[in-house]
Design goal:
The chain has 2 domains: 83 residues, no CATH class; 131 residues, Serine Threonine Protein Phosphatase 5, Tetratricopeptide repeat, CATH 1.25.40. By secondary structure, the chain is mainly alpha-helical. Helix content is 70%, strand content 1%. The longest helix is centred in the middle third of the chain and has 21 residues. It contains 14 helices and 2 strands; from the N terminus they run H-E-E-H-H-H-H-H-H-H-H-H-H-H-H-H. Strands 1-2 form a two-stranded antiparallel ribbon.
Length: 286
């Protein structure tokens, strides 16, 4: 089984996927029941416009209010150190130290913000991707849509800067796609990035999996089947592809084929807890 780092899927699919594959490659259904559309041919419809982003000042103020006094004093001391500096080339390491201080006190949005400031000064692909991923990982626990939108926009900025340095990094492109789809609701932008990867590299398994799971989420089961079968031709024992191929057949109403694939997945995974969860899931729809 391979870890995933992108977008979550809802309901029964997501429960098992989250436990066994990380779950992070399909956006949740919208509250009003609408789902973003993504097609194998590249057509897509963006979801509702994202909420207005929270301001940096409001996020830092909220984070500061949660600090105990000794931590607030530690943060203030580093901030004063930065204010006294005139050489921007020396600021990156201090921003990183400030980020780690916020992180130590579990104020992750503030930590992400200062990791990003350090990364932009360093202008290195590694640090920009680290900061972007830090923001992306925070989106699901943002607490409000405004904060999630801000985190997504910051992640997008970091990933775009990283791609200027290395335009061929498909992992960064996938993270950027996830930021659009999950964070800002710009599904079309994200899908086009994924399609660009698969057009250049049809054997790119992670991007094909993401497109397949998006197709399931939007009810395009035939396209999802095509995507997952492509993966299984490359990696016949890819349990994530097999599991979601079963979901696609279930979505089409072919319960017999879905159950067959779920049973195959159980054999490959060979985990009692997974088998129990799959059996319960099968019993819920057969």
């Amino acid at each position: 089984m391979r870890p995933a780092h992108y977008i979550t899927i809802a309901a029964a699919i997501g429960l098992i996927a989250l436990l066994y594959w990380g779950g992070n490659t399909v956006p949740p259904a919208k509250k009003n029941g609408e789902m973003p559309m993504a097609s194998a041919e590249g057509g897509a419809h963006d979801g509702p416009h994202a909420a207005k982003a929270a301001s940096v000042d409001s996020i830092l103020a909220a984070s500061r209010a949660k600090l105990p006094q000794h931590a607030a004093e530690e943060v203030a001391a580093i901030e004063n150190e930065i204010k006294a500096m005139h050489d921007s080339s020396r600021m990156a390491s201090v921003f990183t130290r400030l980020a780690k201080t916020w992180q130590q006190h579990k104020q992750m949005p503030a930590a992400a913000y200062y990791f990003a400031k350090a990364a932009k000064l360093e202008n290195s692909e590694k640090s920009l991707n680290f900061a972007g991923q830090f923001f992306l990982d925070l989106i699901h626990d943002a607490g409000s849509q405004e904060i999630a939108t801000w985190e997504a926009q910051e992640a997008i900025d970091c990933f775009k800067r990283a791609l200027v340095i290395n335009p061929d990094n498909d992992t960064t492109k996938m993270a950027l796609a996830a930021s659009y789809i999950e964070g800002t609701g710009e599904t079309m932008q994200g899908v086009q990035l994924l399609l660009g990867i698969t057009r250049e590299k049809p054997d790119n398994v992670p991007a094909t999996l993401m497109l397949g799971r998006l197709a399931i989420q939007s009810g395009q089961f035939d396209k999802a089947i095509q995507r997952f079968e492509t993966v299984l031709k490359i990696e016949p024992k890819n349990t994530e592809a097999m599991y979601f191929l079963a979901e696609a057949y279930k979505g089409k109403g072919n319960k017999e084929k879905a159950i067959e694939l779920f049973e195959q997945t159980k054999k490959i995974v060979n985990n009692p807890d997974f088998s129990r969860d799959i059996d319960q899931y099968i019993n819920s729809f057969k």
